[in-house]
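re: ur question from the group chat, yeah i did fold both. here u go
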Amino acid sequence: MLKKVVFFLAAAIMALPLSAVERLSSGEQRRHLSDSLTVALANTDSPADSLRIITDLFDLAPRQQRDSIGRLGIDIAVRIGDSRTGLDLIRNICNLHHSSDTALEKDYDLAMNFNASADRDETVTFIQMMQNYNSAKHLSADRRKMQLRQLIRRATDDDPETDLERMVILHAMAVNIAEISQGPLLNRYFEELDTLASGLRPEAYALQNLICVQASMAYASSDASRAKSVHYDRRLLNRIDAMERGELGIRHPYRDYNANRYVLYCRLLSNFDNISPEEVEEYYAKVMEIVATDSVAASTNRKSLRPQIFHAAATGDDNTVMALLPKALDMPYNKGIRSRLLRIMIDAAGRTGDLEKQLEASLEYNKILEKDITERVNENWRELEITYDMGRLRQKYISENAKIENTMLVVSLVAGAVLLILFIILFILFRHSRRLAANLKITNEVLNSERRSLAGAKASLEKAAERARLADSLKSAFIKNMTEEVTVPLHTIAEHTSLLVQFAKNEEKPFLQKYAAAITLNTEIVSVMLADLESLSKLDSGELALLPRRASLRTLCDDAVNGVSHRLQPGVQMLVDSKIPDITLYIDSTRILQILWQLLSNSAKFTAEGRILISAEITGENQVSIYISDTGIGIPQEYNEHIFQRFVRLDPSVPGAGIGLPLGRQLAELLGGTLILAPQSPEGFVTTFILTVPIDSRRRRKS
């Protein structure tokens, strides 16, 4: 098939006389090559060959045609499972949609059609950063403040699990701050972003390029940070050269990087006071070469005259500056850099002695500066940094708060006692002034004694705090060791019990099976209690990690019922509702099963007759609710929160430790969901628990 493609391309090119080919402009050559590829595409019979030709057509097509061509290629890539090419196309059409939230949302959905992979995660991150940038450009000052507060809360309270999630939050903060300040805080976030990006795979070049581009644009708008803009632009030029050589990402033989280089050379020339004279001449020669050979660059140059103006300003050609600037200042294309051009005109007019132009430019420049100062939001960034850093300490503060309160109570009591003693001493001194000398000696002795007592109390408090920390550590270690040490004997007891029944005489088996079943059930109950204690300990210490994976909701419900059905009392049925939605969850299925087993075990324990039903329904865009209903003894509504407290047992006669429901609620919250006792059960049932969790745990940000 590749031979057929080459044949059609060669035939199309050879159809032109040699002199005609030589006379074709760069744009005409690209159009001719695009037509040849279109003919070749019509004659392919392999989707893979078609996809290769479509990616080349995408690079050759005019900007307005690329969206439809790119989507055709993405559709083929999804069908044949070529995620590398498909995701590359998605990132390229995102550049076309950078100013449309609706289009970027569709690009996000397209990316999610591919199988989970590092490439897909990086592409989704790329899209989210494009959305961040578009949103930051259109926020009001008040909305921006609110947005920054929310981002700080996400960065501290949610504690992003992956570098990519953290990059999305940091990027959103950086592009919002860039709209109002180019100070130390912006540097901090872009440097942290740069560090995270440099640790990604080499294949994540698109993310690294995006950060460089937006950092350069942010720094270019401030005189104080132009050197940083130059740094990022130089990096981008090197990366473009590497992409063109095929050393970075997918090689695109027909992709034209002239537009990118034109923008970079112009921006570097605009920062002429931060580059060497040799670089000024080099960049100017290169940008003018692009203008001479590329029609789009030539059109842009006519609309701005930026390369000529900045080159003249850099080389001290004030006459050229004064000849070009009056025309350039009126060009709409230069509206964003008007203050920069006015600054250049002020300097050039002063050196050429054109005081009238200098005064005129100075007045307008001062108005722009005044307007910029008025419109800028003067945020207290130091306070913002403190808020950001303090957020990280919030969890540690909560864990230590109880210890501090106890310490403060003891200190307050000691201080109160000391004050009381001092008051008594002063009263005695007032009443017995004649015995002042003797009382002073006594008072000094009392004070010295109290000082020693306070020092001893402080030392005791420090030892008590250390013992508390050690006790917490020993508690976790003890629970873990106990679980490991007890679980093995329990399994051994259960296995030997089974062996005793298996090898007993036939006439003895019915008698022994009754007791063997009781032993097995009780060993299982003890094992579950130990596992629950270990889970609670890990939750308290923050060591319980989530391992999300794809799982069928119906299968999870079936597995939960199968794992608990042997605990049912005689005559009780445990059923799975046939109307459970046939959906796939992306969540930690082990923790979901652990919660369901707790709820179903409770229902089995307290239901002597009737039935237990597990059902589910979709209750939100990214939310499913699972219901556990039973015909048991019921729970009074006044205990609907009391039962979720640790070690609470409404009926002490029923075996249990009172940790199942508290553990279930904590696991549900860890998964991003809730566990509650329903205020009202369906007809025919007495008690209903509702477990609500996200369908896709990766989309909790949109919940």
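okk and heres the other one u asked abt
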Amino acid sequence: MKIAKAPTDPEKNRPYFYIIKDKEIFTQADEKGRGIAFLYQDSGRLVSSAKFTGNVTDEKILKLLETVDGFRKLVHSVGVSIEMDEKDKQAEFVFQMYGKKDLYGGGTNLVAKVNTNAKEERIYLSDISWTEDDHVPGQICIHTDAPEKKAFLSVRFFLNDGFDAPPQLEEKPVDTASAEYKKMIDRSLVSLGNTKRLMTVVNRAREGKKVNICYIGGSITQGAGATPINTECYAYKSFLGFKKLMGNGDNIHFIKAGVGGTPSELGMIRFERDVLRDGAVSPDLIVIEFAVNDEGDETQGDCYESLVRHALELPSKPAIILMFSVFSDDYNLQQRLAPVGFRYELPMASVKDAVVPQFYDRTNRIITKHQYFYDMFHPTNLGHTIMADCLIHIMEKALEGEIPAEYDPRLQDVPAIGNTYDNVVLMDRKDNTDLANVTPGGFVYTDEVLQSVEFDLNLSLTPEFPYNWMYDGDRGSEGDFEMEVECRSLVLVMKDSGEVDAAAAKVYVDGEFVRNLDPYVNRWCHCNPLIVINGKKTEKHHIRVAVNKEGIRNKFTILGFGLVK
């Protein structure tokens, strides 16, 4: 006679909300040749995801998500499901908490082995051994057995007793062929400008001549949020649209140079290397996207306009299109930057004008914020499609109209904001070394742990500013970096870092203290441009950078300089 076995007590039904729901991810190769994908949750991203993915409006709950202490009070367990084409595999889910002192190494990791058949696994916070250094929820990492794997990830927070979650929303599919969608895209056209140069590009392409379509911007241009990042990004999707309108020939080439977290203050410095490829690329069409990155531009638009002017002055006389992207809080700098486009009669597309009004029209909404945004900063694949369609719409409208007889950008006239940096050049250990006399002191090493990005259609990473000057106290560095230079303006590009051994420094000009250089202000591996000279005339200057060695904090890297004679 069989004895009936009592079932395990069922898990108590708990309220929950999603922070990630059926999100497509694409893994890249890690240092061991396996696959890895990152989803950052710091700097307000987790709160934002709870809002537009989890429909959370309770300010008490949102506040708790800002810290590990609050997270532990709120969350009972974390549910994780991963679906891949290969249903018999396992992936590893890691939710890394960042530390107070040791950003990347001091926090707790919530880890789960997850089957790739969409079965949900639970991580119970009561089972976790937490560290004293735990500070804020940091990042989610997905590890697969091989790179270039597509997966769909869902993560939800089950709540402790005493907390309630809102109803979870279901969105209807977005019909990109509908008349309503097309009206939304129509709203993106800020100005068609003078289309003479744009039509010249179209005619060159149709005649079979070589045409280079180039993109420069921040992380959205890099492709953040797109999976895979190389082919689902707005840059490549709009390139394909442009290419189709131009005759679809193999003579049309794609150049992508987006770098995450960086403003036009850096874009103007790296333009020669990243877009022009040190003279190897002659652009015919350039899309510039810095509308959500330029809050950190110290010149409030002077650098942006200088970049635009420099591009307009290239011998190839390229067409320029300005793209104004948007964050999930409806923020961008379109109001500041659009006058530059109007000043030079440039075509301009605003994804903010297209999508934001309809976000709040519940009756006629085409796409929700959850469908558009991958996180609080970056678009989903569908969001990237919308951005691409906004750009393609410009060319379609240009093709419908008459070609202007001429185009004169009138670069000799008064600029809209400023043109201080029209002729800025990058100076580092490789380029323009004759423009300064450098005495490196203890800055004799080369930093190889650098911000790296996917250029063009590549999935492999290219490091930014590899020809740098690194001070490394662990290897015996002593002495300040000194430089004699003749210039009108000077921008120092430093490496930001969250590593425990990253030191701060001070910069002096002609013996006078100018500013602190602190890699912990941004606290991630990142290129940070900072103005140290902004003069009215070209003069000789002495530059000195002194490292503030403090315990184990004894490393600092100067990535390069942006110099205006």
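fwiw on the second one: The longest helix spans residues 381-400. The chain is about 20% helix and 30% strand. idk if thats what u expected
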